[in-house]
Amino acid sequence: MSFAFYVPEGGDEWSLNAEVDERTLRDIELDNGDVSVVGDPAYPATDVAFRSLTRYLAAAESRGEDHDAAEAQGRLDVLRRRLALVEITL
C-alpha cells in the first residue's frame, strides 16, 4: 500500500537520536491525499487482499448496520475497473 497525506501544523513530532529519526504522527489530513495498492512496496513483507462484498454486507447486517448493497457493489465495480486499467498499462 502507498499512502499520501498531509500533516497539519503541529500534527507531528520528531525524536532525533544517533540510531534512528522517529516521526510520530498525531494528526493527518487525507483530503487530496491518496491510498493505493502498489506493485513495489516500501516494505517487502507488505501484502493486500480484497474482502468478499457479500461477507462484508452480511457481517454489517448482523451488527445491525444498514448498508446499500447497490452502492457498495458500484464502488467495487469502479475499483475493479481501475485495477484492470493498471494491469493493462503495466
What does this protein look like?
- It is a single chain.
- With 90 residues, the chain is of the alpha+beta class.
- The protein folds into 2 domains: 1-44, no CATH class; 50-90, no CATH class.
- 34% of the residues lie in helices and 26% in strands.
- It has 2 helices and 4 strands; from the N terminus they run ββββαα.
- β2 and β3 form a beta hairpin.
- The protein is elongated.
- It starts with a strand and ends with a helix.
- The model has no long low-confidence stretch (mean pLDDT 78).
SSE layout and pairing:
Layout: E1 2-6, E2 12-16, E3 21-25, E4 29-36, H1 53-62, H2 69-89
Antiparallel strand pairs: 1-4, 2-3
Number of helices: 2
Beta-sheet strand percentage? 25-35%
Task: Give the structural class.
Answer: alpha+beta
- The average pLDDT value, as a whole number, equals 78
What is the 3D form?
elongated
Could you describe the largest sheet, including whether it forms a barrel? 2 strands, antiparallel
**Radius of gyration, whole Å:** 18 Å
Helix content: 25-40%
Which residue ranges are poorly predicted, with pLDDT under 50 across at least 5 consecutive positions? Answer: none
